[in-house]
Amino acid sequence: MSNSNAVMRSLMVAFPEAGNPHLDLSSLIFCDISGIRALVEAAESLSAGRHLTLHGLPSAIERVIRVTGWSDLPSLVLCHCTEGGS
């Protein structure tokens, strides 16, 4: 909660102007709803036609994203790739 705005701003600054950014969250231990919302807002901030791909989401966080309907956003992709593949 205390750093979710900083996370969102950092993600938006870190994303290049072109292409589709990817985040590996497989080592994420904890993320509350404000942190999940920061990821969603970062995806929504991308220019038209671009998307943010999230890899390695813990199942509880993926469940929240699906229940809230955020998984239907065209700018957010939940990847179910396996190690060494996509």
Summarize this entry quickly.
With 86 residues, this protein is α/β, with parallel strands linked by helices. The protein is 37% helix and 12% strand.
Share of residues in helices? 25-40%
- Biggest sheet layout: 3 strands, parallel
Specify Rg, calculated over alpha carbons.
12 Å
How far the N terminus sits from the C terminus, by CA atoms, comes to 32 Å
Shape annotation:
globular
Given as residue ranges, the uncertain stretches (5+ residues, pLDDT < 50) are none
Strand coverage percent? 5-15%
**How many helical elements?**
3
- How many domain units? 1
| Overall pLDDT metric | 86
Class by helix and strand content? alpha/beta
Q: What's the count of strands?
A: 3
Query: What's the order of the H and E elements?
Result: HEHEHE
Going across the biggest sheet, name each strand in turn: 1-2-3
How would you describe what is shown here?
This protein has 86 residues and is an alpha/beta fold. The protein has one domain. It is built from 3 helices and 3 strands. Strands 1-2-3 form a 3-stranded parallel beta sheet. Strand 2, helix 3 and strand 3 form a beta-alpha-beta unit. The model has no long low-confidence stretch (mean pLDDT 86).
